[in-house]
Amino acid sequence: MSGHNKWKNIQFRKGRQDAKRGREFTKAAKEIIIAARGGGDPEYNARLRSAIAAAKAVNLPRDRIESSIRKGTGEEAGGELAEITYEGYGPGGVAMLVEVATDNRNRTVADLRFIFNKHGGVLGESGSVSWMFERKGIFVFGKEHPEDRLMEVGLEHGAEDLLDQGEGWEVQCAVADWGALSDAFEAAGLSPQSASLTMTPKNQLPVDAGTGKKNLRLLEALEDNDDVQNVYANFDLPDEAFEED
User: Fold this and answer.
1) Is the pLDDT of residue 129 over 60?
2) Angle 224-85-3 (CA atoms, 0-180°, nearest 5)?
C-alpha cells in the first residue's frame, strides 16, 4: 500500500485556517443532524460516529452534540435541513463537488452560482462531475505511528490503501468497512488526527500554479458559505501554488 496525492496535502498545509470557530460549529452540528437521521446510536451508525468525531475535533460542546443528535432523530425541533450535492467546474476544467445542508434551496443555489461565476467557474448539471469521484473512509495519522503497524492493523480490517502524505499517513477504506476499521485502530491504540467519510477523485487533473491559485480561491469562497459542508476537487497542485503572490 503506497502512493502520494498532492491534493490531500492541502489538508495538511492549508487546513481550514480561514474558518471561524462559529462556522466550524455550525457545519459540525449540521452534519450530526443529518447523520443522526440514520439512527441516533453511533455504534450502529458509521456516519454519525464520523460526525461526532469531527465535532469533537473542533471542540463543539457536548450539549450541542447531544442536541444535534436529538434534532436528527426528530426528538427535538430544528432538524429540517435538506442535504444536497451540487456539481461544477473551476478554472481550467477542475471538477468540484459541493455538499450543502440548507433550509432554503433557492438561496443556496443562487449563492453557489454567484461564487462559481465570480471565481471563473461554472455551476454544472446533476451528474456532470460526480462520476469522477467515489466515497471513501479516510483516516489521517501523524508520523509518530509506525507505517508497518498501521499496515498490519489496516490490512486485517478492510483498509484498501496506505498513502504517505509527507506530514502524515492516510489510510483509505470502503465506506462499509469504516466502522470496523475505526474500532480496530482504537483497540490497537492508534489514534488518528482525523477520521471521516469523504469523496475522493478517481483521477487527478494537473494544473499550473496560476490555475491552482484560482481554484484555491474558489474553494475557499465556497467553504466560507454557511450552507456548505464540504467541497471536493480533483486538481493536482504544484508546490508553486502555495507561494505568496
Assistant:
1) yes
2) 80
